[in-house]
Amino acid sequence: MTQVSWDQSLTCFAFPGNRRLLSPGFSFATPRILEQNQRSHPEPTHARMTLHRAAAAALLLFTAVSGFAQSSSTYQSSDDFAKYAMKLRENALLRVEPQVFIPTAPSTPYGYGSSAAAPGSSMRYPWKRGIVTTVFWVGELPTKNNPVSNLKSSWDVDWRDSFGGFDNPDPRSRRGFLPAGFIPRQNPFYVALPYNDVTRGATKPEAARVIPWFRTAFTKPGTSVCKGRWVAIRKGNRVAYAQWEDCGPFRTDHWQYVFGNARPLPNLNKGAGLDVSPAVRDYLGMTGMDVTDWRFVDFREVPNGPWSLYGDNNTFVINKRRAAGQALVNLDISYRNALAR
Question: How far apart are the first and last CA of the chain?
């Protein structure tokens, strides 16, 4: 059996490949030798911390190897002993070096008070796929499969008046994406989803926890942060954009589906989970009850289109009016300044 001296063993395993951390002639570190070495070879603070850790690791190794030397275990070659020594070194360093744990991506499901992707990312609000979709309209009267009138909405008791009239879904009574008889005062591209964040004039207790944009949109208790929110609806290769203006079909409490990962619950319309206006229907080429995908979108993701043209509640229209108003203010200021000269 090849005999390995203490000097050889310590040289082969103390800090293989890392001798640059030690000063010249340094083969084994003890606190006293390390202290003397630091006085003669001053190091920056980070290097001193590294040397202290190295010394501690060496002491742990010395203890482990001493126990090994005193035992009856033997190795067939110096290579076997070196492998064992390397394993001891790794174990010792793990005991000395601080352990750093890097957290993985949040496990919170989409919507439950947070979002996994950065704002503006297409994955912030993932698509809800294969959703049975029905058509509804402002001014719709109750039917067997739609027991609630749409003369008012969940957020507007005078919805028909606010809209400007009856949004007739009959293709023969439409002009493009508008009802033929009038230009609506609200966006004709609208949808309903089965959740309402307010009830009896108060904000629901779970709203702050489950609505992703709650903290940035909340103004006061009892005011909805969902009304007017933009939604993308996809059928085939066409995507329409619309604003959330009512609650349904059938339910107003299913936040697990609207903001979470649940599927729509069974109902009289084959488990429908989305209502869309006649304008959305016509843009997508739907034929009555259909199947679509949908997701929430931030306003900056919404392109210009027929959904950007009409309505006092329309973000595009509001921004244009604000810009025009500011332009008039600037013109008035310039005019007054000219007169004052």
Answer: 107
195 backbone dihedrals φ, ψ, rounded to 5°: -155, 140
Same domain as 142, residue 40:
no
Q: Which of 73, 96, 119 is the last residue of a domain?
A: 96
Cβ of 139: how many Cβ atoms within 10 Å?
A: 17
Residue 123 and residue 304 in contact, taking contact as beta carbons nearer than 8 Å = no
Task: Tell me: do 218 and 73 sit in the same domain.
Answer: no
Note down the domain range covering 64. 6-96
* Distance in angstroms (rounded) separating the CA atoms of residues 277 and 259: 21
| Residue with the two structure tokens 């310590």 | 10
Q: Which pLDDT tens digit goes with each residue over 247-290?
A: 999 999 999 999 999 999 999 999 999 999 999 999 999 988 99
| 33: Cα separation from own chain's centroid | 54
Residue at 137 is within a domain: yes
Distances (CA, A) of 276 to 22, 192, 254, 314: 73, 7, 18, 16
Domain count, the chain: 2
Q: 240 and 159: one domain?
A: yes
